[in-house]
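Posting this for the archive.
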Amino acid sequence: MRVLRQIHARVLTQSMSIASFSFGLCKIIGFCALSPHGDINYARRLFSQIRSPNIFSWNSMIRGYSQSQTPSKEPVILFRKMVKKGYPNPNTYTMAFVLKACSIVSVMEEGRQVVLARKVFDEITDRNLVAWSTMISGYAKIGCEFVNEALSLFRDMQMEDVVPDEVTMVSVISACAASGALDTGSWVQAYIKKQLIETDLELSTALVYMYAKCGWIDTAQEVFDAMKVKDTKAWSSMIVGLAIHGLAEDALRNFLRWKKPRWKQTM
């Protein structure tokens, strides 16, 4: 930061056009707001010196606050100021950063924040995959009455001809599991196969959890057995699913399968 402050001082003392001055400050703001070696407070002071910040500067500040270890409302406050000014227009990157900020809050505030996030989402006209996935994930993460919103938004996403990826589908499957919408979940799995969406570890685990939670243990076991790679979360989802449905012997057998390689290594 010491060197950067020197550069900033040099920019201030040089005779240059407003455009060049703003461009120089934008680059410095980007580093201060986003670099692990930066200073978000210093970035904010520089940001206030630009008469008409461009979208890069706005996004840098919003993203910088959203990735801070101390959650704050600054990303939303900045976004509202940006919309109120009317220039520049927020883009899908702005959307993603604001939604991320809305998701990093305490459990008690989550419901209120996701409603705010939806307002932000609705104000963006050019929504890309990141924006749709982030909003669906926000609904699915909170659960309860919001899971139906996640599924409804997924249908809207399809109507807009936005092709989902495995990240989107994890959230959709999680919403199906939370709501007990097994028929929808089965349709989603068929959709994943039809669209040739990569079924990675996280997506496979979500399918196992959904089927197990909804009582389709045999299907959950089929998905689980087909997984080439299984982590602790995958094993736990399968074992717990078997146990809660009274299949104690099957649960124990899977537990022994999970631990057997480790036991062999210690013998």
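The CA atoms of residues 170 and 202 lie 7 Å apart. Residues 248-266 form the longest helix (19 residues).
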